[in-house]
Specification:
alpha+beta, Heat Shock Protein 90, Rossmann fold, 9-stranded mixed β-sheet, 5-stranded mixed β-sheet, 22 strands, elongated
Length: 635
């Protein structure tokens, strides 16, 4: 072909950064490159087999799909080739020179320079081709798209120097061949025994035969090195934990082992096999609800699609795995999956299986479950609102920070909370704030903490939405400490009731003056049963929206329903007593507004006029300083 068809391109900036990280961050685990390249070859074969369902001619006379591994110790090269789907010139440029995955910028912002952390992120990103440069100083790719003429072959080549070349060639073989020119310190990967051991370790589960030449320099015959049988199709009793873990790394392109897995075959009215995994670390795009997600779908061992999201609800989008159905048609599409009753039945079964797997993990390996909750807890909570049918299974899986501070128990389950209830306690108390630290110091729970009553501390953005969907757990109702009455019930002694009545009687005049000063900003002013240290707070009605939720609605262009809070005063607090003794109506009104603004800030609100608040505060400080000066100068 003419030289004019040879082009030089620069790698996308993200690819250059990724290659640098691949070469330097993963040096200590460099053997994983072979797993990644064989995995890519397996995917290419899968895609051809699926495409050939609709277009059998793509297989031509070469219908036995395989993967070949050839090493030349003398030349220092290693070649991994397949007879799968192949690539066009445009696809080679796009797939091997750029990263088009959603969230690329966010991914690279997450990279820190910490080798251990970066290697985990790279694995989650799933760009295994570039791992070739861990062991190779030059990589050459020969490829031809299935169904295209021999003249449309492509050679792609790069020395990891920021550029790559692409040229058109004549290539008789369909599929892709990746030749690695090994670095001087990576010659071990051209040794027959080393390669065979790595293939058996990392790629034994690949559903296609991985072939190598039989031992002996003159041998031209190939033999199968791996088992070449889909792992999920084998009996569980024959599969080791290491094999399960390696299969996860293959399908998830992750370098870390999973926390748990569940392998099951369902027979009867419908038949399908599933192998589901709980990852140990969240992907960088976990909170992007429209990001690619889902299971690998096979029908009677034939690969159909990646990211089949129809088989699990959105709140379980972190689950990785395979589902292989015996009942779905081979020509099933994403559109048909959305309407198929069979898919809905499988989805229901898989959802319950995942929740049962998480329940076992929580019970049998609480430390691992704590890792899971830290990574995926915020997403699992979504199921409380989105999946009412499984709410009873989800509630025991929730974990909360709480006022019961224990180094051995960073979070608490609802069952454990129930075990620690005070005698006579009928409510599960919780408080929502902008952060766990803010929740822990919230004025709404001062009296509860003083009585030793445990309070759940919530700080995720979705917590208010989630807690609005639940009513009770094991017969104990949830109670937001910032709303309505605390409902202490028998926890409140006769002395408490007497003190509350006395406080109301003695402070009636003060309460009326404060209500008059604040006008329509508050529904009512009353003595507080919540406060012990703070002077005032704003209490919401049982169905009122918090200030944070109002801000969310406002940002979305929606108007929140009108509501007025109740102002509670700690009538024993020195500031409130000072307020009660203020005779000047103007000074009284300013102090009352100051307390209201402080209470609004404590609730997480934003002041309508921060400058005015600061001015009122400054005037009070100047006045108090003047009083102090006058007292100090008195003989």
């Amino acid at each position: 072909m003419a030289d004019t068809q040879k082009e030089t391109h620069g790698f996308q900036a993200e690819v250059r950064e990724l290659m640098k990280l691949m070469i330097h961050s993963l040096y200590s685990n460099r053997e994983i490159f072979l797993r990644e390249l064989i995995s890519n070859a397996s995917d290419a074969n899968d895609r051809l087999r699926f495409a050939a369902i609709a277009q059998p001619s793509l297989l031509d006379t070469d219908s036995e799909l395989s993967i070949w591994v050839d090493a030349d110790a003398t030349a220092g090269t290693l070649t991994i080739r397949d007879n799968g789907i192949g690539m066009t010139r445009e696809e080679a440029i796009a797939h091997l020179g750029t990263i088009a995955k959603s969230g690329t910028a966010e991914f690279f912002r997450a990279l820190s320079g910490d080798q251990q952390k970066d290697s985990q992120l790279i694995g989650q990103f799933g760009v295994g081709f570039y791992s070739a440069f861990i062991v190779a100083d030059r990589v050459e790719v020969l490829t031809r798209k299935a169904g295209s003429p021999e003249e449309s072959g492509v050679r792609w080549e790069s020395g990891a120097d920021g550029e790559f070349t692409v040229e058109s060639i004549v290539r008789a073989e369909r599929g892709t061949s990746v030749m690695l020119h090994l670095k001087s310190d990576a010659k071990e990967f051209a040794e027959d025994y080393r390669l065979r051991s790595l293939i058996r370790r990392y790629s034994d589960h690949i559903g296609f035969p991985v072939l190598m030449k039989k031992p002996g320099e003159a041998s031209l015959d190939y033999e199968v090195v791996n088992q070449a049988k889909a792992l999920w199709a084998r009996p569980r009793s024959e599969i080791t934990d290491e094999e399960y873990a390696e299969f996860y790394k293959h399908i998830a392109h992750d370098f870390t082992a999973p926390l748990a897995w569940s392998h099951n075959r369902v027979e009867g009215k419908r038949e399908y096999t599933s192998l589901l995994y709980v990852p140990a670390r969240a992907p960088f795009d976990l909170m992007q609800r429209d990001a690619a997600r889902g299971l690998k779908l096979y029908v009677r061992r034939v690969f159909i699609m990646d990211d089949a999201e129809q088989f699990l609800p959105l709140y379980l989008r972190f689950i990785k795995g395979v589902v292989d159905s015996s009942d779905l048609p081979l020509n099933v599409s994403r559109e048909l999956l959305q309407e198929d009753e069979e898919v809905e039945a499988i989805k229901s079964g898989l959802t319950k299986r995942v929740l049962d797997m998480l329940a076992r993990l929580a019970q049998d390996e609480p430390e691992k479950y704590q890792t899971f909750w830290k990574e995926f807890g915020a997403v699992l909570k979504e199921g409380i609102a989105e999946d009412p049918a499984n709410r009873e299974k989800l509630l025991p899986l929730l974990r909360f920070a709480s006022t019961n501070e224990s180094n051995n128990e960073p979070t608490v389950s609802l069952a454990r909370y129930i075990e620690r209830l005070k005698p006579g306690q009928e409510r599960i108390y919780f408080v929502i704030a902008e952060s766990i630290e803010a929740a822990r110091s919230s004025p709404y729970i001062e009296r509860l903490k003083a009585r030793g009553i445990e309070v759940l501390l919530l700080a995720d953005r979705i917590d208010e939405w989630i807690m609005g969907q639940v009513d009770a757990f094991e017969g104990k109702r949830f109670k937001d400490a910032a709303r309505g009455d605390l409902e202490l019930g028998s926890l409140a002694s006769e002395t408490d009731k007497h003190d509350a009545d006395a406080a109301l009687k003695e402070s009636k005049g003060l309460l009326k003056r404060v209500k008059d000063a604040l006008g329509e900003r508050v529904l009512e002013v009353r003595p507080s049963t919540r406060l012990t240290d703070s002077p005032a707070l704003l209490v919401l009605g049982e169905h009122d929206l918090r200030t944070t939720m109002r801000r969310v609605l406002a940002a979305a262009g929606q108007k929140a329903p009108e509501s007025k809070p109740v102002l509670e005063l700690n009538v024993t607090h020195p500031i409130v007593k000072y307020l009660d003794g203020e005779k000047d109506a103007g000074q009284f009104a300013q102090l009352a507004e100051l307390l209201y603004d402080q209470a609004a800030l404590a609730e997480g609100g934003q002041l309508a006029n921060p400058a005015e608040y600061v001015q009122r505060l400054n005037r009070l400080l100047v006045r108090l300083a003047g009083v102090h000066e006058a007292q100090a100068s008195t003989p």
